[in-house]
Amino acid sequence: MKLSIFQVDAFADRPFTGNPAAVVPLQEWLNDRQMQAIAEENNLSETAFFVPEGDAYRIRWFTPEDEVDLCGHATLASAFVLFNKLGHDDERIDFKSRSGPLSVSRAGEWLTLDFPAQPAATVEPNERLTAGLGEAPAAVLAGEDYLAVYDSEATLAALVPDFALLAKLDRRGVSATAPSEKYDFVVRFFAPALGVNEDPVTGSAYTQLAPYWSSRLGKSRLHAKQISARGGEVICEMAGERVLISGQARMFMQGVIDPASLEDL
């Protein structure tokens, strides 16, 4: 069975920026060991696999360490591949996932994810989180991830996290965020427990970030920047109990996985 593989820079308006994701289109599922091995071999923050299911696609995401329930940038990359390489001629793609129904719509070069909002609740800072970040945040919220809020972009940019400590937290990862003069907010995202010390751009994190900043700033449409080494810009907008997360993407490479490499898995 021939397995195509694509690598796409998501939330990027030019190559070598944004967040690279691998995309493996399938007609039927590989087993979990095979998909995890491919993700580990790719050594990217996420590898997405999808199969047709009715008029939609069932999508799954794997880090080098484990399967996750929701991933934004690899969903954006998957839609980019479907639109630009696999002949999907509608302006919307529907995905089914462990986090429920998702969709991606296209308007020119911009792709918009329609994801469930996941508002976080205020919690008391814990010592491991503060020590792991290296600087006490002004406020901490928690949902699927911790949301550590700082007072300035300069403080956020200067963080030197202890990833060994952050890997021991009881959440998927940490969104560290702050207001910005140029953008509505800036963010860095750390998920060492999943094998991703600092993620370049984390689409799913905006399901928590958008509700927080929308409430704080009193506006529904927000322009954000993830200030990782690669960097990436994100437009997010509250739409009731959903968040619309928009970005561009660029193809980097495509190839074929040797099926013989998977035979013993």
In short:
This protein has six helices and 18 strands. With 265 residues, the chain is an alpha+beta fold.
Question: Could you describe the 3D structure shown?
Answer:
The chain is about 20% helix and about 40% strand. The chain is an alpha+beta fold and about 260 residues long. The mean pLDDT is about 95. It contains six helices and 18 strands. The chain has an 18-stranded mixed β-sheet that branches. The chain has helices at about 30-40, 70-85, 125-135, 155, 165, 205-215; strands spanning about 5-10, 20-25, 45-55, 55-60, 65-70, 90-95, 100-105, 110-115, 120-125, 140, 145-150, 175-180, 185-190, 195-200, 220-225, 230-240, 240-245, 250-255.
Helix/strand order, N-terminal first: EEHEEEHEEEEHEEHHEEEHEEEE
Question: Major sheet, described briefly?
Answer: 18 strands, mixed
Shape: globular
Span between termini: 15 Å
Total helical elements: 6
> Which structural class should the secondary elements be placed in?
alpha+beta
Secondary structure elements and their pairing?
Layout: E1 3-10, E2 19-25, H1 32-42, E3 47-53, E4 56-62, E5 67-68, H2 72-84, E6 92-97, E7 100-107, E8 110-116, E9 121-123, H3 127-133, E10 139-142, E11 146-149, H4 153-157, H5 163-166, E12 174-179, E13 185-191, E14 196-199, H6 206-217, E15 221-226, E16 232-239, E17 242-247, E18 249-257
Parallel strand pairs: 2-3, 4-6, 11-12, 13-15
Antiparallel strand pairs: 1-2, 1-18, 3-4, 4-5, 6-7, 7-8, 8-17, 9-10, 10-11, 12-13, 13-14, 15-16, 16-17
